[in-house]
Amino acid sequence: GRLEAVTQQMGYHPQYLDSFLKTQHYLMHMDGPLPFDCRHYIAIMAAARHQCRYLVNLHVLQFLRAGGDPQWLRGLEFIPPKLRNLNEINKILAHRPWLITKEHIEKLLKISEWSWSLAELVHAVVLLAHCHALASFVFGCGCEQDEGLGGRGSLKPLSLGNQCFCEATAGNSCSQELLRINRKRSLDSCMELDSLRERMQRIHVETEGRDEMRLLQQDREEGEGQGEEVGVQGGTEHCSDPSAGLSPFADTDGEVTGATNLACYMQDPDFGYQDFARRDEDQTQVFRVQDYSWEDHGFSLVNRLYSDIGHLLDEKFRMVDGLQSSAMAKRQGCEPSVFKRGIWNYIHCMFGIRYDDYDYAEVNQLLERMLKVYIKTVTCYPEKTNSEMFDRFWKQFKHSEKVHVNLLILEARMQAELLYALQAITQYMI
């Protein structure tokens, strides 16, 4: 029930880790519009969209410890309609956030027995975006685990005994006050492995296998390399599908490994990411940051409806932008700020978010094709990421630099989802 694998990886950047832990703790355990059990169930719903067992299992345990009804863990059919109604925007935000409209917001807020308040909905939206983006980090850094034991691939979580997840950061400048609060209040505190197994068996959470993907032969990748360029056509950016160079992982018997069965926590499991450039032009327009930005619009709205969360999110966005990346950028032959902005804007480009003052030709110049394939996979369908991809794509990067890029993916993706959701809420309020 701990986030130790995540905090170990984020620990390469202790200032960011401190900011992340404060936000995580505030979202899940401090005063807010939503009951504690509902917060963890929303996290389960969000993580299930990407088949992220690591986060699902974590929040299943925390849901029970918060006094949640075990019957809810049988699936969406067993939860209150109010919570089940959140499924639609969970699905859209996770895969195609540009489809969120004020009608989705109105449907949830309409006067009825199961209506949401604006404050509750903002809390839920932030939770969904947080967990979707965290799932990308979990897969991107190899934190996804098998049956709660050990890490997959080349990234093994530390064996921290009975420490809570915040205690793991004590040597990484995590504030003593935050540690004190978490030791006292956090539902993320330690749980013995035997108890974990017992609870997981009791609620029948499935933990067999997961969907794994790996690269085809290099010649096929090179053959499709031309499709990976980012261009500006008709005022929109085109980012093609990197999964064309991927194939299901087959075991020694030639059978494809099955995905974790988390179907009970979601509806329409086949709904997934679709290239924004292939959208219906009549239904969706490019999202222009000049018209609606986090700094000028999203921050004030979210902070007004869910007190102080805007400050925590803003600190986290600024923290990842301020991380040192001089060596990483030097390898790519550019300035650190230019390199980071290229990654950030490339990620936002995949979600249809455009910066009018940015030359998108820079993306192709700054980011080599293999790096772009990795970034898009982790961002748009993280469940297809595996350790082979992690090791093969970034041979020239240090481990801390790989984590840094995964942090950029986490924050850029989260901000993209929030921009679409908060814009829809703004339009509803107007």
Automatic annotation (TrEMBL):
The UniProt entry's GO CC annotations, sorted and at most eight, read: cytoplasm; nucleus
Q: What is its main location?
A: cytoplasm
In residue numbers, the region (Disordered) covers 219-239
Named from the GO MF annotations, one term is: L-leucine binding
Q: Name one GO biological process term.
A: positive regulation of macroautophagy
Name the SUPFAM superfamilies for this protein. AhpD-like (SSF69118)
Top-rank taxon of the source lineage equals Eukaryota
**Which region is the signal sequence?**
none
- Catalytic activity field: a hydroperoxide + L-cysteinyl-[protein] = S-hydroxy-L-cysteinyl-[protein] + an alcohol
Q: Which Gene3D superfamilies match?
A: AhpD-like (1.20.1290.10)
> Which InterPro entries does the record match to this protein?
AhpD-like, Sestrin
Pfam name, any one = PA26
Where is the protein situated, by its record's location annotation?
Cytoplasm
Key word Cytoplasm present in the record? yes
Q: Which UniProt keywords apply?
A: Cytoplasm, Oxidoreductase
Write out the similarity annotation: Belongs to the sestrin family.
- What is the protein's name according to its record? SESN3 protein
Q: What is the lineage of its organism?
A: Eukaryota, Metazoa, Chordata, Craniata, Vertebrata
